[in-house]
Each structure stands twice: as structure tokens, then as C-alpha cells.
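Batch 3, record 17
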Amino acid sequence: MNSIHDLGGMDGLGPINPAKDEPCFKDDWERRMFGLFVSCFAGGHYNVDEFRHAIERMDPAHYLETSYYEHWLASLETLLTEKGVVTREELVARKKHIAMEDA
Amino acid sequence: MPHDHSHPHNKPLSDVELRVKALESVLTEKKLIDPEAIDLIVETYETKIGPRNGARVVAKAWTDPAYKARLLSDATAAISELGFSGVQGEDMVVVENTEAVHNIVVCTLCSCYPWPTLGLPPVWYKAAPYRAKVVKDPRGVLEEFGVSLPDETEIRIWDSNAELRYLVLPKRPDGTDDMSEAQLAEIVTRDAMIGTDVLAAH
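Prediction for the assembled complex:
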């Protein structure tokens, strides 16, 4: 399916700006996100095609303005809630709880 | 729920940080993941799996013609001879750079990349500008990496996908005849194995 992720040949997206040296992960949340993806993949909760398809279903504007591991987060939330592994309510409640503890 | 106070309290957690923590916390509670296993996975990819693996494959191909032949005919098997296999490297194809042909790898749709041989992809490989431009203006892209090729060199772009991953076998630079396989592995860059670098003569 042709959508915003199908970037090949698109003009006007700006310079590539390759960094000479960069860390594997730039923030700790990216580390956790990567590990969550591998763990849930190993747990058999989805295959790579489903994972990519869930990224491709992101809102196009949101897709372009968010980073790589944020795409992974969106995909994992979508797949795990659609498959009934977790519920949106559980995630929202836990997020509120963690934010309160962090304050 | 344990509260980890290891982060400095000068800045509240961002929305993304909170969502990742919430997801990890709920999955841990359901015993679907193990946070210590995540630590180990992250450490492995930060310290053990990276482009030095691919460089060893390249150096062996440069010094062992029989290995090179195996690598070009069945890359997955030849790469696993050196112990590099697994997630995101299940089906590998190696494309050889020559005087006449220069190969470049991209994933226009996503960020597919050969993890066992190159580790996790750099930010630019995953970002929109490279994915969009390299299939349309590869010479312009090479220029951004400080590389220029003779006009008559044919450039081939390989679009990776979830099942099949490519690795470029760079041209062995001139002046390296006396180098050992281990020394050769030292001079192979990650970008040369993606195709956005050409190794300089020694």
C-alpha cells in the first residue's frame, strides 16, 4: 500500500547530514524501546511484517515528525492492544501513575 | 511499584518516556517480559554486534577467493561460517563493488538493515532524506558523504525489505597487498558496506 512511509524518490526532504560518530542509542528510553521490541518479538506477539504495517498505519503527519524509536513505540502499543495483550486503559493508568511518582 | 530514582529530577519525564515506562511496567507485571533480559539485549547490541562483524566478512572475502565465491553465491551461509547470524540477518545477499559497478543499500519503506553484520542502523539510514533521495539521485547522495565516482561507473541501488538484507563488498583499496586479513578488517568502514563510502588507497 502506497502511503507516507513509501519515501523512495520523494523530493524536498532536506539534507541527509550523516553524523561522523553517534551513539547506538541517544536516550535511555530508546534502549528500553529496542529491548521491548526484541523481547515481544521473541515472545511471538507479532511478526516483522505486522510490526511494519502498524508503523505504516500511523497518521502521516505524525509519522514524518516523530523519530524512529517513537515509530516503534506507536507500533508496539497498536499491536499489543489490538491483540488484547494489554489494554489502552492499563497503559494510560500506568502512565499517569508513573508521571505522578516522577513529579 | 519500585520507583527508580536514578534519573535527575530537574526535568519531568517526556510523554514518550512515560509511554515506554508504562509499557515496560505493564508487560513486566504480566510476566511477558523480563527487564533484565532487556538490559542484556541492549548491552549485546551496544557492545558486541556491530560493523566490525561485517568488516571481518569483507576482509576474509578479500583474502580467500574460495570464501568470496561462497559469499557471493550464498551469503547467509558464508556469513554464518564466521558466526554472524540471527535476527534481521536471516536472508543475506552480498553485492560486489568493482571498477565498473558501485552498489548502495537502502530501505525506502522502513529501515531494514543487516543487524548481525552491521549492528543497528545509523540515524541517517532510518531518516526520510536518505531513503527518499538515494533511489533518485545517488550521485547527489554520495556527494553529501564526500564521495565522487567516475561518470562511467554504474550505480546500483538495492532496496532492502523485512525478509532480505544486503551487504556491500567494497573494492579492496590499492596499496593493501601486504596487509593481513586482520589489518584489512580494520580499514573497512560501516558506510563502505552500505555503499556510501569508498575506501581510500593506502
